[in-house]
């Protein structure tokens, strides 16, 4: 799409690596090993991609020194310690930038809102009372920034995002399309067979460098705030209920639900499709594999699971039949009884032999 | 945020309780026991919060008479039978109200639509042919109210909601941001290796006092209607397929999917992340715990489950290995065989003793 | 709603069937057997609906020849080989059509975009640079069509849809409300305790006759594209991660998550609430039942499962206790040990008898 290029030497310097080969080789983009052409750069993410790399048509390769030594049929390289990180850095070089600044004429902005001159406010954005939008922040079309919401600097808010509940966002926050931040938490007092709504009075506080995918829901707190600390990353279609607290640099994969008042520590990785029950505490450095269900506190860091992988359907049906019997089978006694009976038999046998 | 206040005596009267202490104590809001300050009111939701309550800085406490007796270091109370309900009622007193009325100049409203004078229609709302919006209903910015949709009185429809499929909403219905009501059900006739779309001709009928969270999908029926009876409450990211019928006052937690033509009774509680297969009937007063999967009718009220809680990962792996063996282990026979063998051994032993 | 009618004879010809009865019977719509009235047509989808059909008030019935023979209390029929398919075809005859063409005055369209004269662009739609919208395509209100997105002919894009990431859509594609196509994939390089964003440079390619429900997320690829082949159908609230490839005519039910770089074959059926881990390959003609979790490649077509159906809660609790013991019970050895002990006992018995 773009005809802009970078020279091999320049790219090496962007990722603090060494180049090998033709310093002025012109490279116009990144591509996968399979699809890369002579004007493109590919990265080799470990030994298992060496065969693919050997037959790749890429103009140059991002590699470690040891990978480079294995690729003697190629001539142009960027040598770094961490090719995946170098690749991550270079995606920013080649991505299409949003350069527009200013406020589209169709945006509706309350006079009390403060919008930085360097921000961009797209078509049909609606911004309420006392809102703040920081420097170089991009707010795409159709967003709703409700009263008292504040957004820091260099944020990216994609189309159709709803920010409400007086949410406060830090700097460099990215929120993808159609996500809702600060909507009302699911709080009801049951009384005489009906549900009595508890208006939610808390807010949502989002730190710096937080990333939230598309179609997510992050609810405002009931009294205190829902809190996402710095560096939290969240995939698509994730539910974060009221009064949840997510520790710094925790990652949550798609379609996970975190129920109300859960506290998750720092540097956790929550697999996709997981569900965490309300009012639980999860320690730092916890990894949950996909489709885990958490119903108790987790006080030790480590890896935990409860999702069951696939069975052939007929075998699965027979397995579930057994599972339905399991409650009435005293499993731990079985082994003990077997051991006891074994002793009895052996005792009988030996007595029997003695009396021969 | 607000400088408005209520006197202790006034608050007691709002929740039909008794005040103890200083009648004219000024209270400006609700807060949690931990964070409350002298101008705020906190509630004590049972004995287990007594320690927190004793050390709280709140100006006054909502309590039962027996809780009050335990808090002799404090002086100002609202005494009620049900503090949680009183708290729920007071959240409405202290929440920020939407007071605007009328139609924003940027809203696009079909001439055949009937909008109550006391309604509020936000910026960039689009309202189609023959729609109705009732008294005191708030429709926030960017909503799409498609042709033939009718909304009752005192409803709240948050931003980016899509109401289509000629949906009919009762009174006091609340629909949170980015939810879709009345979109096309997932109906296809398979024929010669392709899927043939079945245009959906039914609608969605929503009763009074229904609450639907953000990012939910409620599909219109194929021929008959999808029905949500009075008082149903639904959390975020919930799927309600075509021709589902939800009984009055049933509650559904986040990320649940209810498949087509399911009927759920009244006063049910469906835990988060559950999935209910198509064409099933679920009785009144059924509770499902989190991540339940329903594949058969439930004819008896009661509590049901199938979600498995977390294991340490290595133990889980060994558990799944056993689970994969389970189909071929005749569990119920094991115990019987053990019993039989025990008899045989005892018989051998006794015969043996007799012959000594 | 509509007063238009079709004669029985006309309807028979629309579905290439035979009519029996009154050729000029006027029919105004389709209805279910229970609710149909004399001016409506109902279909009988097999023997199990015969009792309902006999007591139905429908004016005419879509049936097979053998079903017709069983319904001698009725007089008007459309006889076809496949009543369900005929019904699917007729829903299109009776559905309300969107007849508006042209561009609403409030739409914001970049001068470089090419919009077919026969397309409809709704209120407050925003269309970016170099976009294409094909003949007879309907784009409902508030959609965001971001730069370089291309949409084919006869597509239907409902309100609040976000199309971004330079996505390319084929012909007759239907995308329901509030869905996001082409948003950024969830790619981060971990380094020194932080997540480093990988800007996503690939796109999304969607074939002809693809259907995507409401509130779905389909992410753009990291380098290569995310691909949905012709005839794929997807229900609501489904996550399709970056670089997924879905084979032609595969169907995915609601609330399923397909993780990054998964390839699913043709003609698969993925049950609701399923989750498929990253980088897996699934063969053609695979069926997954509801709430399946896939953690390994599936190389054989067939039916697979791992979701557990419901238990009464107390029994479930006891079952989970046993499940937690299962890792330490040598299941396959148990049966072998029982067999061994049985032999020992029998040997003892026979020796004993011999010596009597």
TrEMBL record, chains A, B, C:
Pathway: Bacterial outer membrane biogenesis; LPS lipid A biosynthesis. Residues 106-184 form the Mannose-1-phosphate guanyltransferase C-terminal domain. PROSITE patterns: HEXAPEP_TRANSFERASES. Keywords: Acyltransferase, Lipid A biosynthesis, Lipid biosynthesis, Lipid metabolism, Repeat, Transferase. GO terms for molecular function: UDP-3-O-[(3R)-3-hydroxyacyl]-glucosamine N-acyltransferase activity. It catalyses: a UDP-3-O-[(3R)-3-hydroxyacyl]-alpha-D-glucosamine + a (3R)-hydroxyacyl-[ACP] = a UDP-2-N,3-O-bis[(3R)-3-hydroxyacyl]-alpha-D-glucosamine + holo-[ACP] + H(+). Its EC number is 2.3.1.191. InterPro entries: GMPPB_C (IPR056729), Hexapep (IPR001451), Hexapep_transf_CS (IPR018357), LpxD (IPR007691), Trimer_LpxA-like_sf (IPR011004), UDP_GlcNAc_AcTrfase_non-rep (IPR020573). SUPFAM superfamilies: Trimeric LpxA-like enzymes. It is an enzyme of class 2 (transferase). The keyword Ribosomal protein does not apply. Homotrimer. Belongs to the transferase hexapeptide repeat family. LpxD subfamily. Catalyzes the N-acylation of UDP-3-O-acylglucosamine using 3-hydroxyacyl-ACP as the acyl donor. Is involved in the biosynthesis of lipid A, a phosphorylated glycolipid that anchors the lipopolysaccharide to the outer membrane of the cell. This is UDP-3-O-acylglucosamine N-acyltransferase. It comes from Acinetobacter towneri.
């Amino acid at each position: 799409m773009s005809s802009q290029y970078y020279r091999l030497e320049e790219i090496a310097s962007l990722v603090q690596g060494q180049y090998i080969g033709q310093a002025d080789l012109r490279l116009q983009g990144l591509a996968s090993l399979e699809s890369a052409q002579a004007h493109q750069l590919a990265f080799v993410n470990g030994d298992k991609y060496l065969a693919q790399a050997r037959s790749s048509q890429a103009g140059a390769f991002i590699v470690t020194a040891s990978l480079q030594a294995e690729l003697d049929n190629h001539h142009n390289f960027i040598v770094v310690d961490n090719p995946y990180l170098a690749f991550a850095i270079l995606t920013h070089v080649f991505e299409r930038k949003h350069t527009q600044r200013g406020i589209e004429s169709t945006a509706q902005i309350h006079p009390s809102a403060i919008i930085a001159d360097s921000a961009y406010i797209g078509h049909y954005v609606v911004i309420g009372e006392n809102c703040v939008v920081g420097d170089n922040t991009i707010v795409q079309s159709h967003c709703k920034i409700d009263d008292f919401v504040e957004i820091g600097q260099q944020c990216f808010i994609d189309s159709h995002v709803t920010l409400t509940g007086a949410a406060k966002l830090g700097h460099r926050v990215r929120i993808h399309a159609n996500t809702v931040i600060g909507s009302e938490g699911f709080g009801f007092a049951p009384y005489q067979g009906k549900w009595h709504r508890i208006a939610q009075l808390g807010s949502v506080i989002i730190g710096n460098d937080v990333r939230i995918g598309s179609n997510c829901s992050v609810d405002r707190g009931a009294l205190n705030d829902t809190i996402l600390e710095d560096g939290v990353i969240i995939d698509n279609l994730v539910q974060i209920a009221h009064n949840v607290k997510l520790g710094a640099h925790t990652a949550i994969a798609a379609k996970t639900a975190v129920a109300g008042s859960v506290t998750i520590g720092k540097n956790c990785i929550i697999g996709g499709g997981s569900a965490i029950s309300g009012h639980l505490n999860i320690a730092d450095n916890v990894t949950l594999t996909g489709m885990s269900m958490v119903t108790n506190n987790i006080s030790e860091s480590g890896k935990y699971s409860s999702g069951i992988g696939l069975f052939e359907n007929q075998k699965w049906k027979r397995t579930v039949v057994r599972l339905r019997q399991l409650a009435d089978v005293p499993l731990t006694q079985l082994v003990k009884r077997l051991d006891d009976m074994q002793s009895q038999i052996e005792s009988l046998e030996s007595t029997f032999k003695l009396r021969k």
